[in-house]
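In line with agreed milestones, the collection of sequences with tokenised folds has grown. One record among many is set out beneath this paragraph:
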Amino acid sequence: MEHQTDNRNKRTLLITEAKRFVSFLLSEMKPKGKLVTPFNVFAAVVLATTAVLLVIRFTKGLASTTNLSQDFPWGIWIGFDVVTGVAFAGGAYVVTFMVYVLRLEKYHPIVRITVLNGFLAYVFYAGALLFDLGRPWNVINPIIGNSFGVSSVMFLVAWHFMLYMIAQFVEFSPAIAEWLGWKRIRKFLGGLTLGAVIFGITLSTLHQSGLGALFLMAKSKIHPLWYSEFIPILFFVSSIFAGLSMVIFEGSISHKVFRKQISLQHHLEHDEIVIGLARVCAGTMYIYFFLKVLVFIHGQQWNYINTPMGWWFLVEIVGFVLIPVRLYTQAVQFRNLPLIRFAAALTLIGIVVNRLNVSIIAFKWYAIERYIPSWMELEITLGVIVAEILVLRWVVNRMPILSDPPEWARPRPEVTRETRFVPKEGEEKEWVTINM
């Protein structure tokens, strides 16, 4: 009888908790703030148009919405959504390396928002790959073992993407547990963070360079000013300052949009964090510029400079590498935050130009008929970006991303144990341990 009563009580408790959990999730789905705003209206129009175009694309094929062809199988969905987007997401592995490996605690307030940005970027841009595949259902082939293609760079990139997204989710999962109030699960997930960070950093460095390695197979198709056997290294180095520039750019916007969410510590340390990130960007960009010059001299491509493509090459190197690095250096020296933000924006434009040059503009530059993305391709790309922003806003407004975590999840101050020489009354003097 008592056993039946205990089972009934447990069942009742489980049902009660399930109802509470569902009620909590439903309440969290409600909008936080005004529903009708200029951005929300714009987002609704963009997403509705994107949904219609995707229905057309998946029912009538790629030719119905894109200008892709056998000569140009990769377009804006690869050149921007993947190749450029992954570089912008590089801030996650750089910041986690600085905080968890180098122990630079100054940057700890921006870890969660940076990891969230990186995770969402990978999820949405990897999802955008489905739009570009003629047979989207074959995307699972590298996972299930059908036509593994272990000698293919694309196979490595696919597995790097998948495993890195898992690692980033594990890094971010403590915030989800804090939001849901799962104390025991939060403790377990927190113990996985360091391992996930190290695993994620390793994967990220591999696939950032792996994306560049994809283009090593197109030596005869890429303009000599952009092709080099060092493309993987250049992609990796540029992902460092590209990711940190995106952190600066997005952080400046988040600092205004989510001002009420930001913790007091983050407010106080914001300027120093931005200046520190700018200093790293400047140093990395100097290395990148030196490598570009070294590759150019080594390749002996002087005869291409006085051509239209050569002039465009100089615009990329001087306008979007040399000038931004000089602005970064000057801004750090004089602690000029507006100049840092301007340099970050200019750097991001430069990364877009570089990645599009390698994947589209300088690809088959000699062809008479060139690839120009259709308006539908651009609209779908815009839809992906808008959807990512909406999800980011929803998460930040509900989870402890920029705000302080709940008190039960905060690390307790360490209790030190110190041995002192304390005499006891009526006894000989002896060493005892006292908690301090």
User: Anything to note?
Assistant: The chain has one domain: 36-404. Confidence is low (pLDDT under 50) at residues 429-434. Strands lie at 417-422, 430-435. The first helix runs from residue 2 to 28.
